[in-house]
Design brief:
The complex is a heterodimer of chains A (54) and B (571).
Chain A: H1 27-52
Chain B: H1 3-23, H2 30-35, H3 42-53, H4 56-69, H5 80-98, H6 103-110, H7 113-146, H8 150-197, H9 205-214, H10 233-250, H11 252-258, H12 264-298, H13 307-314, H14 319-349, H15 352-383, H16 395-403, H17 408-444, H18 450-474, H19 481-505, H20 511-531, H21 538-558
Helix pairs in contact in B: 1-8, 1-17, 3-8, 3-11, 3-12, 3-17, 4-12, 4-17, 5-10, 5-12, 6-7, 7-8, 7-17, 7-18, 7-19, 7-20, 8-12, 8-17, 8-18, 9-12, 10-11, 10-19, 10-21, 11-17, 14-15, 17-18, 19-20, 19-21, 20-21
The chains are: A mainly alpha (54), B mainly alpha (571).
Chain lengths: 54, 571
């Protein structure tokens, strides 16, 4: 397995580019996207709960 | 409460307070006192941000909201994760780059002195008021149900929080919040466990959901476009986004928490911790109220949950009316429980006809119990027009006192008081910091030593603590405590947020334009609040949009006078 790492002054910026297909995004962008996906999941789950028991 | 409860309560609260004072003794420089030694990791800061926002009202009133109105209140928090991501991207790097003590210092860098002072004064006004409510709200509930003297409860909580906040500053606040959150989570999980354990043995969890759903308690998301409806997905996303952006991004009580981190990375992770957990946490607290609602379908609830007020009037001139309502409520409750059991049995047997028939009977019986409860409130109001007829704040504490064993009652009361102390400590710390840095150091006494400013900070924190105590002692209760704080916040937050958004994104706008625009927009919001009855969350948006638009118009009318100070944005 080949991997390339790039280090910046922020330790979070040290990433394994082969780990995901999102290497073109910065690590922080990935963190924010993960939070937004989690948010959509939570809201979706609550909306599903409302629809299940109208 | 018995001796064991008091040992748990005093042991945990005094223990955490004294430990916080001891660990943070000897703060000498201003940075250490107001921002900690900047060694805090993201978990401590994440918990600190959470503890600052979640006051005792969150843990006492929110289960009551779940009991009364279901899960809809969770929508209020839908804008929060989006706002925290925005703050982590835009606000945080600027605060750290400029190495500020307060958020309003940034306004001074970007605009001018008067705009910085306006931001600081608007914060001091609304947070000074909220600090009093933070102590008062739980004290009035706890003293009512536990027969404590309300003034003594307020003074005891107030003096403890003042002692460790004045002594240890920001570090003491963050450290004590960590342990206080442990007590709070421990207490809430225990209460939920006991509640589930005491549900009828024949009631599986799917039936709990079925009962709650059929009685309209699981409607978490509403897509209604009615602006008068208090909680919808739209008011939650838009209004909640602006409220959260303003609260977390510009309210010093929050900014002071996350600028105490050791690095930008730790601060961001602390905020993301909250972005990920806040909606699930609020859901869990509301769901606890929904399960409590189902619990009281099978156990006899009081007709009015503020039993102290009910008992007082029951012994008075209207005693006979109240006793007859009480008896009627007992009868309709038994009838509802019987129909509910029939309905659940028909559901399990798969008998559709019997299920539908029993469901209608159950719903009709439920409606009758609601009618009798409404009659009880009307009778109470007729007896004493000043009596508060909203008893939802008393639902959870009534369950705790009636169904939890001794020791655990003390733990839950400790959890409520821990939540009061943790929020109030952050508020006092921020009020002291803003008064010292933005008013005293900036305007009154600019060239004193660090030691002098630490002493001044201690003095101002003490002063604000005493102001909050005085306000709490003389405050009158609002319609619903949790909403009162949010309403006060929403009236000011939109304008303050606009000042920051203009600072970040509209680099052509100068100090004078934003200053007068902020004053005009704040006046507009207060006038609209007195004439309209729309959901208070919308005032965040209205205040923000009005202030941004007014600043653009004013700047266009005045024209640019100089190169401005927006160079701080690229410093």
């Amino acid at each position: 397995m080949t991997s390339s790492s790039r280090a910046t002054d922020d330790p979070m910026e040290t990433v394994d580019d082969t780990a995901t297909g999102l290497s073109w995004l910065s690590t922080w962008t990935r963190v924010y996207l993960a939070i937004l996906v989690w948010f959509v999941f939570c809201v979706g789950l609550l909306a599903a709960l409302s629809a299940r028991y109208p | 409460m018995n001796l064991l409860d008091f040992i748990v309560l005093f042991g945990s609260m005094l223990g955490i307070g004294i430990y916080g004072m001891w660990r943070t003794r000897g703060q000498r420089d201003l940075s250490g006192y107001l921002r900690g030694d900047r060694s805090m990791g993201w978990t401590a800061i994440g918990l600190s941000v959470m503890a600052t926002q979640a006051s005792a009202i969150t843990f006492i009133s929110t289960p009551g909201q779940g009991f009364e109105s279901g899960l809809g209140f969770v929508q209020n928090y839908f804008g929060l994760p989006l706002a925290l991501v925005f703050i982590a991207v835009v606000f945080l790097p600027m605060y750290r780059r400029l190495d500020v003590y307060t958020a309003y210092e940034f306004l001074g860098h970007r605009f001018d002195r008067k705009t910085r002072l306006l931001g600081a004064v608007l914060f001091l006004l609304q947070r000074g008021l909220a600090a009093g409510i933070t102590i008062y709200a739980p004290a009035i509930i706890l003293s009512t149900v536990l027969a404590w003297r309300v003034d003594m409860t307020i003074v005891a909580c107030g003096l403890l929080v003042i002692a460790y906040t004045v002594s240890g500053g920001s570090d003491a606040v963050t450290l004590t919040q960590k342990y206080q959150m442990g007590v709070i989570f421990g207490g809430m999980v225990t209460a939920f466990g006991v509640m589930v354990y005491q549900l009828p043995a024949e009631l599986p969890f799917s039936d709990v959901l079925a009962v709650a759903g059929t009685l309209e308690k699981l409607e978490a998301v509403s897509f209604s476009l009615d602006v008068n409806q208090r909680y919808t997905i739209w008011s939650g996303l838009l209004g909640g986004f602006f409220l959260s952006l303003s609260y977390f991004g510009t309210d010093q009580s929050q900014v002071q928490r996350y600028i105490s981190c050791s690095s930008l990375r730790e601060s961001r992770l602390g905020l993301m911790f909250n972005a990920a957990l806040k909606i699930p946490m609020q859901f869990c607290i509301l769901f606890l109220g929904v399960v409590l609602f189902v619990f009281y379908q099978f156990e006899q609830p009081p007709v009015f949950f503020n039993r102290t007020a009910w008992e007082f009037h029951r012994k008075g001139a209207s005693g006979e009316t109240l006793r007859s309502i009480e008896q009627r409520f007992g009868e309709v409750h038994v009838e509802r429980r019987r129909h509910m059991r029939t309905w659940l049995a028909a559901r399990r047997a798969g008998d559709t006809a019997a299920r539908l028939e029993a469901r209608d009977l159950m719903l009709a019986a439920h409606q009758r119990t609601q009618t009798v409860r409404a009659q009880a409130k009307e009778a109470l109001s007729a007896t004493d027009p000043r009596a508060r007829t909203n008893d939802s704040d008393y639902v959870f504490i009534t369950f705790i006192l009636d169904y939890l064993p001794h020791g655990l009652i003390g733990l839950l009361v400790a959890a409520f008081i821990a939540a009061t102390l943790s929020s109030n400590a952050a508020e006092l710390n921020a009020l002291g910091a803003t008064t010292t840095v933005d008013l005293y150091k900036h305007v009154v006494h600019p060239d004193a030593s660090d030691e002098h400013y630490v002493k001044a900070s201690r003095g101002f924190t003490l002063l604000w603590g005493l102001v909050a105590l005085a306000f709490a002692l003389f405050a009158n209760t609002a319609e619903n405590l949790i909403q009162a704080i949010n309403i006060v916040g929403s009236l000011f937050y939109g304008v303050v947020l606009a000042m920051f958004l203009v600072a970040f994104f509209l680099k052509r706008i100068e100090g004078t334009a934003i200053f007068w625009a902020a004053l005009a927009a704040q006046t507009l919001v207060l006038v609209l609040y007195s004439v309209l009855s729309i959901s208070y969350l919308w005032y965040n948006l209205i205040g923000c949009v009005a202030c941004v638009a007014a600043s653009m118009i004013l700047q266009a009318l005045m024209g640019r006078r100089g190169p401005g100070r927006s160079s701080v944005m690229s410093a």
